[in-house]
């Protein structure tokens, strides 16, 4: 069980020689989810030694270039590598025409199907689910329609308390699955054996909240409450809060306040303005409010 987040890029709009726009790989139970796809993402994937073939789901927060300009290149590379399996792309309404238009104008085609899931709801919604993973949107407040993503690891089945189970001859191997699923067991005489006696509760599933470009928005707190890890944009220091508000961004102080209100375990800042040569000034501002705040490092992986 667990979630691993690899930071492929985390700076704001303009790339530099030592930084890259937004992109992350979230490995949750060997599901490799690509979150945003700024310019140069596929090069960063190579550096991180992540196989392109493992990426089956891409989640785009919004249609600003530093979050989406790397997507068409990645899609073309997947074709050149011989991909056949379908690829799912989640993003704002318009992302389908954005990609298809580029493919058309460059006389390109893909030998695999792209399944688009266009989003336009302003309420949090479950957009992806399988046996082990759930992904919810986090409606954000930016200059354009924008979502963050809340990724939840589903809990495993309960573990049998074999010592207790073996006390009851009527419980057979064929009954184990239902018991592990949480059901009580009824003996032939009608006695109910509580599931809590027969099993051990699994470790709670881990959670990760990715909050892309957004101004200070306490409305997201109930959605990300108690997250194990929060990534939240912090473009400016709080002395530039008026500029943050004007451009639809947050300050480091505001990111820390969100983390504190949501009672998250750990905060990682990101989406820094290039005006800051040393990102530690943003870190120091946030740590005054939320001590367990950290800066990301390119290609580093944080494990929950």
What does this molecule look like?
25% of the residues lie in helices and 27% in strands. It is of the alpha/beta class. The strands form 4 sheets. Strands 6-5-4-3-2-1-18 form a 7-stranded mixed sheet. It has a 7-stranded mixed sheet with strand order 7-8-9-14-15-16-17, with helices on one face. Helix 10 packs parallel to helix 11.
Feature tags:
7-stranded mixed beta sheet; 18 strands; 304 residues; 11 helices; alpha/beta; globular; 27% strand; single chain
Biggest sheet strand order reads 6-5-4-3-2-1-18
Note the total helix count: 11
Percent in helix: 10-25%
Q: How many DSSP E strands? A: 18
The biggest beta sheet is recorded as:
7 strands, mixed
What characteristic shape results from the CA principal axes?
globular
Rg, nearest Å: 22 Å
**How much of the residues is beta strand, in percent?**
25-35%
How would you classify the helix and strand content by structural class? alpha/beta
Layout of strands and helices, then pairs:
Elements: E1 3-9, E2 23-28, E3 31-37, H1 41-47, E4 55-59, H2 65-68, H3 71-80, E5 87-92, H4 95-105, E6 114-119, E7 126-129, E8 133-139, E9 147-153, E10 159-160, H5 162-165, H6 176-180, E11 185-186, E12 192-193, H7 195-198, E13 199-200, E14 207-211, H8 221-224, E15 229-233, H9 241-247, H10 252-262, E16 267-270, H11 280-287, E17 293-294, E18 301-303
């Amino acid at each position: 069980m667990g979630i691993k987040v690899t930071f492929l890029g985390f700076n704001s709009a303009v790339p530099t020689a030592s930084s890259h726009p937004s992109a992350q790989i979230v490995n949750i139970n060997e599901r490799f989810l690509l979150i945003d796809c700024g310019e140069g993402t596929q090069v960063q994937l190579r550096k991180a030694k992540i196989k392109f073939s493992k990426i089956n789901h891409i989640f785009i927060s919004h249609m600003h270039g530093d979050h989406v300009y790397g997507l068409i290149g990645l899609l073309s590379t997947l074709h050149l590598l011989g991909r056949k399996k379908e690829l799912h792309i989640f993003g704002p309404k318009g992302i389908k025409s954005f990609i298809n238009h580029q493919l058309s104008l460059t006389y390109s085609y893909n030998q695999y199907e792209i399944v688009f899931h266009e989003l336009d709801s302003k309420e949090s919604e479950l957009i992806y689910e399988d046996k082990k993973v759930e992904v919810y949107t986090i409606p954000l407040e930016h200059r354009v329609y924008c979502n963050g993503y809340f990724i939840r690891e589903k809990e495993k089945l309960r573990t049998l308390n074999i010592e207790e189970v073996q006390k009851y001859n009527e419980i057979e191997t064929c009954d184990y699955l239902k018991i592990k699923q949480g059901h009580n067991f009824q003996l032939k005489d009608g006695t109910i054996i509580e599931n809590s006696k027969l099993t051990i509760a699994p470790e709670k599933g881990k959670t990760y909240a990715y909050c892309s470009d957004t101004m200070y928005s306490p409305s997201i707190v109930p959605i990300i409450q108690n997250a194990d890890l929060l990534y939240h944009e912090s473009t400016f220091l709080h002395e530039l809060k008026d500029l943050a508000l004007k451009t639809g961004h947050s300050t480091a102080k505001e990111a820390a306040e969100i983390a504190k209100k949501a009672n998250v375990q750990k905060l990682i800042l990101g989406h820094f303005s290039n005006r800051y040569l040393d990102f530690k000034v943003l870190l120091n501002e946030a740590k005054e409010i939320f001590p367990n705040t950290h800066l990301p490092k390119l290609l580093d992986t944080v494990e929950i």
